[in-house]
Amino acid sequence: MSQVNAIGLNSAKSEDIVKSLNTLLSSYQIQYMNARGFHWNIKGRNFFELHVKFEEIYNLLLLKVDEIAERILTLDGAPLHAFSDYLEISKIKEAKNISDGEAAVENLLAGYSTLINMQREILEQAGDAQDEGTASLMGDYITEQEKLVWMLKAYLN
Ligand SMILES: [Fe+2]
């Protein structure tokens, strides 16, 4: 007999999902800080437009940071909360001293593509564990970010 947790999910499978969610959380924290850095450091003709857009983007990222951490707690896990851990396991790298608008948008695009791929994997993992809560969260993020990727790519064109 496999063990189930307080919300009726297989404990071992939930632990695996927690592990993946902590990697996702770490990657979000770096993508968030990168977007925040672009908001501050951007220069040039598109300053006003991009400064505002990057703020919109980092606010969306920050909302998810909290939702992911609280999903981890819901699954009986512990969310990572130290930047030393985030840097170690994030799949997104820190971006430093980028002030060019196109370079910043390209960097964010690459980060979103990483996040979307990770979320697709977690969606599958959650499906296998009948973890509808995590699956629907991932589905919502993927839908929102696929659209954002289209818009960022259109900007670069
Ligand atoms: Fe600001």
UniProtKB/TrEMBL annotation:
InterPro entries registered for this protein in UniProt: DPS_DNA-bd (IPR002177), DPS_DNA-bd_CS (IPR023188), Ferritin-like (IPR012347), Ferritin-like_SF (IPR009078), Ferritin_DPS_dom (IPR008331)
Pfam families attached to this UniProt entry: Ferritin (PF00210)
Domain Ferritin/DPS: 19-157
Coiled coil start-end: none
Family classification: Belongs to the Dps family.
Annotated protein name in UniProt: Dps family protein
Source organism: Pseudoalteromonas haloplanktis (Alteromonas haloplanktis)
